[in-house]
Write a structure and sequence with these properties.
35% helix; alpha+beta; 4-stranded antiparallel sheet; 12 strands
Length: 252
Amino acid sequence: MKQLLIILFTLTIVSCKNKTLNAVSTTSNSKDTLKTELLKKNEKSNSINKIDVDFKKNKDLLDIILLLPDSAFSSWEWKLEDRIKWYNEIKENGYYTDNNPDYFNQKYFEPNKAGFSIVDGFWSINIYRTSESSYIVITDDIVGDGNTLNIYEVKSNELRNYSDEEELFSNFKELLKKKEHTENCAEKFEEMNDPIFEFDFTKKNTIEIESSWYLTKEDYENCLIGNAILYNFNPKTKKFEIEKIYWKAKKK
């Protein structure tokens, strides 16, 4: 009888021990699962702020951004020291961390162009390779009162001012005016000095300047020969040459 009691007591202890171990194992597994899920969530959250940029593919454009003077960012500040940190992060990691996407939000980044929304404005850089292996560089700073263009040439990693807007685009406002017109167009010509023109750099080696939303054919055809000009870049002359001047339909 005494031996039977000892056996039953031993079995009870073993059973309790196994239950305890199973409970510990289950709790540990639950904690591990929860930890893994949290890590995945954190990784996903962090990846939202990581903006991929292929350094080798975009090196020429990235190098040029470092060469730009502060005046190329007239409506906001992107100091050289901040650009260097941004550049080095991309070089080392293949991405940069965007801690404030509402302020500096990348819209596109390609070997020949990049664009960023800056609060309620937009800044872009566009580069055009010449036959001399240099680049014509145009930055466009867009705010509520129009575009600010800066134009440079980069050769052998050196940057210099290239020309102004009128020279580069053959004084496009004058090109739109009719030499002979049937009404007094002085007032309408004066309106063209306001910031009513838009610059489209989206197509490679092509620029369109237009004001179809304001200079409609219906109201201005007596004074103008068109409201839009299409330019193609000539790598040999380093100039944008006119392909056509035309009337573009008003955007709806």
